[in-house]
Amino acid sequence: MPDSDAEPANRRRRKQARPQELLDAALALFVEKGFAATRAEEVAKQAGVSKGTLYLYYPSKEELLKAVIRHFLSSRITEGVVLAEQHVGSIGDFLRVELAQWWAQLYDNPAAGVFKLVIAEARNFPEIGEFYATEVVQPAHALLAGLIARGAAAGEFRVVDVDSAVHSLVFPLVMACLHRHALAACPGDWRLDGRAFMAQHIDLVLDGLCCRTPLPTPIAVPSPR
Amino acid sequence: MPDSDAEPANRRRRKQARPQELLDAALALFVEKGFAATRAEEVAKQAGVSKGTLYLYYPSKEELLKAVIRHFLSSRITEGVVLAEQHVGSIGDFLRVELAQWWAQLYDNPAAGVFKLVIAEARNFPEIGEFYATEVVQPAHALLAGLIARGAAAGEFRVVDVDSAVHSLVFPLVMACLHRHALAACPGDWRLDGRAFMAQHIDLVLDGLCCRTPLPTPIAVPSPR
Amino acid sequence: MPDSDAEPANRRRRKQARPQELLDAALALFVEKGFAATRAEEVAKQAGVSKGTLYLYYPSKEELLKAVIRHFLSSRITEGVVLAEQHVGSIGDFLRVELAQWWAQLYDNPAAGVFKLVIAEARNFPEIGEFYATEVVQPAHALLAGLIARGAAAGEFRVVDVDSAVHSLVFPLVMACLHRHALAACPGDWRLDGRAFMAQHIDLVLDGLCCRTPLPTPIAVPSPR
Amino acid sequence: MPDSDAEPANRRRRKQARPQELLDAALALFVEKGFAATRAEEVAKQAGVSKGTLYLYYPSKEELLKAVIRHFLSSRITEGVVLAEQHVGSIGDFLRVELAQWWAQLYDNPAAGVFKLVIAEARNFPEIGEFYATEVVQPAHALLAGLIARGAAAGEFRVVDVDSAVHSLVFPLVMACLHRHALAACPGDWRLDGRAFMAQHIDLVLDGLCCRTPLPTPIAVPSPR
DNA sequence: CATGAATGAGACTTCATTCAT
DNA sequence: AATGAATGAAGTCTCATTCAT
Questions:
Q1: Which chain C residues are Cβ-neighbours of D220 within 8 angstroms?
Q2: Residue B207 with chain A: CB contacts under 8 Å
Q3: CA of A36 to C1' of E1 (A)
Q4: CA-to-C1' distance for C17 and F1, Å?
C-alpha cells in the first residue's frame, strides 16, 4: 500500500522532535543564564521555532523548567540504578570503574547542567525540590549506601558512617558538574580536568574507606562558641 | 545644646549601619529566590528602608549583587587565610581541627549562601566569576595545596595529585553549604547534619591521604565508549 | 457503486450545513462571552470543525460577526414585517396577539441574543450599527408607528406621540431579551418569566393608549405613615 | 503653625484624585469599545498617566472593571433610594416628577453607560452580575414595587401584576440609556430625545396603571408553536 | 537624607490568521 | 476541502530606576 502512511511527512516528524529540541534549548539557556534571566523567546529561537510554538508544547515557562528537570534527571538516573543493580562482584571495583564511568559520561553531557538548575531553582519551585529529592537523591543515595554497607559487611570497607561516606563520595562529583557549568564557563581559564579528578577522587575516598590499619581517634570539632 | 542635634546621633548610627543591613537583606533574598527573581523593593523592605534609599547606597541592583558577593566572600576568606598562615605544627591536625571549625562556622552563617549565588550568577556577571576565581578560589586552593604538599614532603601524606586532593577535600564542604541553602530549605525534610558530615568527611579524606600501607595499583578509568 | 462516492453524499450535506452551524455556534459564543473574548477556535470547535475550516467560510472573525448579526436579525425581521402586512382588523388585537406571539417566539430563540451583540458591538463596527438601524430598527419602527397612527386615526387609540409610544411598546420587549442573555444567565436566580411579562406589558401599554374617558386629575393620596 | 501639614503638596493631591480619574476614563472607554477591546494603556492615557500608574491603583484590568461598575452604580442608586424614601404624597406624582427627573439626570450622565457594561460583561464576571442584581436591581425593584403596591392599595392604581408593572416602567428607561451609548453613538443620526421619551413613557405607563374603566379580558398568548 | 509616586522598557502569554500537508 | 502546526503582532502586567517633595 502506498504512501497512505507516509502522509505525516515533514510537519509531523518535526512535531515529534519538537519537545526534545525545546528541552535541549531550554536546558542550555537555563543553565547558562538562569531560569528567570532567560527569555522564553530565546529558548524558542535556539530551538528554531517561534515564540508561539514554544507555548504549543509547554503551557508556561515554569512548566518548561519542570519538564527540563524531570527529563534530564530522570532519564539519567534510571540508567545508573539499572547499572548498579546488574553489577556483581567487588564493591570497590564497581565504584572505581562503573561509578567513575557513569559520572564521566554525565560530566561530558549537557544534562550535567541540571544540578545547577536544581540548586538555583528548588526553593522557588517546590515541585522541583521534591522531585529531585525523592526521584534522584533518595534512590541514588540508597543505592550507594547499600553498596557501601555491603562492602563493610563483606570486610572490604571499614565501618564508617555510611550516609556521610556517600556524601563524601558523591558531593565532589556533583560539584565537578556544577563547576563545569559555572566557573569553568566564565571568561578566564578556570577549567578543571573533571574526568581525571573524578577518578582520583573516587580512588581517594575508596582508599579512605578501605580496610587497613586502625584509624587514629578522631578529634572532635568544638562547636562554634 | 539644642535638640536639633539630639536625634541625628541615633539616625547617624542607623545610617552607618545601612550598607550592612542592605547587604544582609540582599544576601538572604538573593540566596533564597535568586538574583533575577528578587525585587529591589523587597530588599529595601527587608532592610527596613524605602526603595529609593536602596539606590542611595548602591547605584543598581547589579552593583548590589556584586557588593554582596565581595563583602561576604572576602571578609570570610581573609580570616581563613590568616588562620592558616598562623598555624604551626602537624598539617593533619590543622586540617582536622582548624579547617573543620572554620567551615563549621561558615556553614552556620548566612554567608554560606554566597556559594549558591556565585554558582548561579557567575556566568551572567563576568566580574563575579573573576572575583570569585581570583580572590577566593585561587588563594584558598593555593593555601590548601601548599599544606598538602608540605604534608607530603614531611612524609605525613602520601604523594598524590595535589590539586585533586584539594578538590576532594573542599568540594564536599562547599556542597554542604549549597545543600543547606537549596534542598535543605525546601518543604519536606531533606536536612543533613552539616557539621558532623564536614568533620567526618575531613577525616575520611585525611585518612585516604594518610601515609600507611602501599596503595593498590589504581585501575584506569576507561574513557567513555 | 464504488464507495468513493458513498461518503461524499454525507459530507456534502454537512458541507452545506456548515455556514449555518458556524453561525449558530458563533451566535451562542459571542452572546455569552462577547465578541472580543470569544476565540475563533472555540467557535470552530463548537461547530464541530477545525480552526482552518472556519476561515474557509468566513474570511475573518469580524466578518463572521457581521454575518451572524445579518443572518439572525434579517431572517427574523422579515417574518415580522410580513406578518404585520398581512393583518387586517383591529390594531389593538393585532398587537395584543400577533406582536406578543412574535416576541414570545423570539424570546425563546437563540436569535434573541443578537440584541446583546448589537448593543455591545455597534460602536466598534460601524457597519453593524448601520445595518441594525436601517434594516431592523427603521422598518420595525415604521411598521409599528404606522399601526399606532392607524389606530389613532380610527379612534381606537388616543392621540399621543407616536414615536415615543413605539419605544414604550418595544423597548421592554428588547430588554426582556437582553435580560435573558445577561443577568438571567448569571449564577443566582435572576430569571424572569419573559413570556408572561411581554403579554402583560403589551396589555399595559395598549391600555395606556386605549381611548377611554378623559383622565381625571390624579388625586394625591397621602402616603401611609 | 507653619506648613508642616502642607507638605502633601502637589503629588499627594494628584494621588487622591487618581482613582476617580481612572474610573472616569475606564468607564468612557469600556462603554465605548467594550471591556475586552479596550487596552489598559488607553485607559491610562485618557486619565493622563502611564500604563504602570494604572496598576498602582487597580491590580488588574478586571478589578478596574469591577471598580467602575461598583462605583458608578452604587453612587447613583443610593441617591435614588434616598429620594424615594423621603417622598410623601401621591405615588403618581412622585413617579411622574421625581422618577422622571432622576432618570433624566442619569441619562445625561456618563454613568448611564454602566448599563451597557453590565449587560455585556455580567456573564463573564459573575461578581458583576451578582453585584448588579443584589445591589441595584433588587433594591430598585423593591422600591418601585412598593410604591405601585401602595398606589394600588390607595385606589390610585389598578390592581396589576406589580413585578411586570415595574419592568414595564423601568425597562424603557434603561433601554434609553443603552441606546444612547450604543446606536445613538454610531455614525448616522439615530439619536432619540431621551428626556422627552422618558417623561412620555412614564406618563403612558401611569396612564395604563391609572384606575379607570374596567379592563377588557386579557387574551392569553399562545405558547410558541 | 529619605520617601514613594510615577514611569516605560521589557517579559510572558494569547490568539487571529496562514499554509503545508 | 479540511486540518492543525506554526507564526508573530499585540496585550497584560512587572519592576528597575528616577525624581519631586
A1: 199
A2: 207-208, 215
A3: 34
A4: 14
Nearest to A119 by CA among D12, B175, B73, C203: B175
Chain D CB within 8 Å of residue C83 CB? no
Determine whether the interchain pair B32/A118 forms a contact, defined as Cβ–Cβ distance below 8 Å.
Answer: no
* The one-letter amino acid at D149: A
CB proximity D175 to C under 8 Å? yes
Looking at the C1' of nucleotide F9, which residue has the nearest alpha carbon?
A52
Residue in chain C nearest D166 by alpha carbon: C201
Q: Which of D164, D111, C179 is nearest to D102 (CA)?
A: D111
**What's the CA–C1' distance between D166 and E17, in Å?**
48
Residue pointed to by grid coordinates 536602596: B54
Please give the grid coordinates belonging to residue B13: 548610627
Distance between CA atoms of D41 and D51, rounded to whole angstroms? 5
Task: Tell me the C-alpha to C-alpha distance, in Å, between residue A84 and each of A101, A159, A178, D167.
Answer: 12, 21, 24, 80
State which amino acid sits at residue B99: L
Contact assessment for residue D192 and residue D139, using Cβ atoms and an 8 Å cutoff? no
Q: Which residue of A has its CA nearest to B104?
A: A224
Asked if A175's CB is within 8 angstroms of B129's CB, the reply is no
The tens-digit pLDDT sequence of chain C (225 residues) is: 444 444 455 555 567 788 899 999 999 999 999 999 999 999 999 999 999 999 999 999 999 999 999 999 988 888 777 887 788 788 898 999 989 999 999 999 999 999 999 999 999 999 999 999 999 999 999 999 999 999 999 888 989 999 999 999 999 999 999 999 999 999 999 999 999 999 999 999 998 888 654 444 444 444 444
Selection from D39, D20, D151 nearest residue D95 by Cα: D151
Enumerate the β-bridge partners of residue A210: A157
DSSP label of A60 = S
Give residue D9's pLDDT. 54
Q: What confidence tens digit (pLDDT) does each residue in D39-88 have?
A: 999 999 999 999 999 999 999 999 999 999 999 998 888 877 788 778 87
- Look at chain C and count its residues: 225
Strand E lies under 7 A from the Cβ of residue A5: no
* Degrees, nearest 5: CA angle C112-C113-C117: 130
| The one-letter amino acid at D28 | A
Instruction: Name the closest residue on chain C to residue D165, using Cα atoms.
Output: C201
For residues D104 and D197, what is the distance between their CA atoms, to the nearest angstrom?
10
CA atoms within 13 A of residue C49's CA, in its CB half-sphere: 24
Q: What is the pLDDT of residue C212?
A: 59
Please indicate whether chains C and A are in contact, defined as at least 3 beta carbon pairs under 8 Å: no
Q: One-letter amino acid identity for D46?
A: Q
